[in-house]
Design brief:
single chain; alpha+beta; 5-stranded mixed beta sheet; 20 helices
Length: 484
């Protein structure tokens, strides 16, 4: 028993000696003498020391393909090239490929299936649900939540791509559909320029008086081909108090064949057959109609103002004082200047790797809310000024116009005479209305068929056309939708 106790005592002494050796020497680094075993779990206090270092994305070779402006958007391409150069300077590990594909709802499925869609592609406000439901837009919620300026993004625009608590796109800029007017054409013809608080009657009168069909001059060029034709007409549906669709008890129902729809269609019918004010070759898509305006072949065109002004001033050689941006006309004196609220968005390809998606997000937001962004903006304006070109700001930007950043941008705009200035009175009358939630492009396309019937056949049965169109949209698209 004594021998056993002696052995125990010796063991205790040896154990205490080991503990003392491990804990002694306050100037010694404990980690040097007692490195943790590979299987040790770090304590709360020591977690930072034992966690593996976070990978730096700048150390990885990443290639992304990006949406690149169209060939005729010369100034926009120069601005994008400048951004690419500055981005690569900060991220030398990244290769950027310029994609010549621009979003088309009839092509996106093929592009995704063949893995040919760019890492970042452009799209419109109407496409959010369409892309998300088909899995063609990456869920970027985590990237968004870690973005320091997320709360300063224009909420009206960004909300279009926030679906069921997740984020699927990044707003660039937006607009409320307007009517752009060639004031010089009106002046040359002796036609009075209407006030900004105008009505359908004012638009009709102006279009009829300035039109000269014998010379190929239209008073107004409503789009008559592609989904853009239905998009154009929907402004008048809204102004008449109508809706595209209703959603009740989980069911989506076509609503555009209403009395308001008939009123809007009658107005188109009058412009075509009574006033003879639209182009004789009326089957114009967006590019055709905007091109006709820039070339002085129509006095009015309906669109988001920025694209029209870009072509009219920088390709068509018009002067800013001769190109006026009007709100959409109200149906009558008691109405509102309602225009379709739209926007341009950038979406990240869900087939891209995690690293490609993160670099794509960083590229999209690279200039947002930064002094470098303001510097780039001013440099773009200066370059355009040197080349005799104009800078056209978006009507709605990714930042709020009243924000601190918005005021800084405005201060830059005010410094230069080559920046197009929207009339404050016109802007104050804008009344934006969001597009339909479901199958918007399908609806636009079907309504285009109706408009083509109206433009090609005098005396068409308007109610029958709209009823048949609503029935087709209902059965082909809306009946399959179950809203939860």
């Amino acid at each position: 028993m004594l021998k056993k106790n002696a052995v125990v005592m010796v063991c205790l002494v040896m154990l205490m000696s080991i503990v003392a050796a491990c804990s002694g020497g306050g100037n010694k680094n404990t980690e040097e003498t007692t490195p943790p075993a590979a299987t040790d779990k770090p304590s709360d206090q020591g977690s930072e020391a034992t966690e593996p270092p976070k990978e730096d994305i700048k150390e990885k070779k990443v290639t992304i393909s990006i949406y690149y402006p169209l060939p005729d958007q010369v100034e926009n391409r120069k601005a994008e090239d400048d951004k690419i150069a500055r981005f690569i300077q900060e991220y030398p590990n990244v290769e950027i490929v310029k994609s010549d594909w621009h979003y088309n709802p009839t092509e996106i499925g093929v592009k995704m299936a063949s893995n040919e869609a760019p890492t970042v592609f452009n799209t419109w406000a109407t496409e959010a649900k369409f892309l998300v439901e088909r899995g063609w837009a990456a869920d970027i919620t985590e990237l968004w939540d870690n973005y320091e300026y997320k709360d300063q993004i224009n909420p009206i625009l960004q909300s279009q791509f926030n679906i069921d608590g997740k984020v699927y796109g990044i707003s660039q800029k937006g607009y409320v559909t307007t009517t752009v007017v060639n004031k010089k054409m009106l002046d040359d013809k002796g036609v009075a320029v209407p006030g900004y608080d105008w009505t359908w009657d004012d638009m009709y009168k102006t279009a009829k008086e300035v039109a000269d069909p014998g010379k190929g001059i239209a008073g107004i060029a409503p789009m008559g081909r592609g989904t853009e034709a239905g998009w154009n007409w929907t402004n008048f549906l809204f102004e008449a108090g109508g809706e595209i669709q209703t959603v009740v008890d989980g069911k989506v129902t076509a609503a555009f064949n209403s009395a308001a729809g008939i009123k809007a269609l009658e107005f188109y019918n009058k412009l075509r057959w009574e006033a003879n004010a639209i182009p004789q070759d009326w089957a114009l898509g967006w590019g055709d109609a905007v091109g006709a305006f820039a070339q002085g072949r129509t006095a009015m065109v309906i669109a988001g103002a920025e694209g029209v002004l870009e072509q009219a001033l920088n390709q068509g050689g018009m002067k800013p004082e001769d190109v006026l941006t009007f709100p959409m006309p109200k149906a009558d004196a008691s109405g509102k200047h309602t225009g379709v609220l739209g926007g341009d968005y950038l979406v990240i390809n869900p087939n891209a790797t995690k690293e490609e998606q993160e670099i794509a997000f960083r590229y999209v937001t690279f200039d947002y809310f930064t002094d470098k962004g303001l510097e780039s903006l001013e440099n773009d304006i200066k370059k355009r000024q040197e080349e005799g070109k104009f800078f056209i700001p978006p009507q709605l930007n990714y930042f709020g116009s009243d924000s601190e950043y918005g005021q800084k941008a405005k201060a830059i705009f005010d410094k230069y005479d080559n920046v197009y200035k929207y009339a404050a009175e016109s802007d104050s009358l804008l009344d934006g209305k969001a597009e339909a939630q479901y199958n918007t492009q399908d609806y636009y396309g079907e309504v285009t068929n109706v408009l083509q019937e109206v433009f090609s056949k005098e005396g068409a049965d308007l109610q029958k056309l709209l009823d048949n169109s609503a029935k087709l949209v209902q059965e082909k698209f809306y009946d399959a939708i179950k809203v939860e």
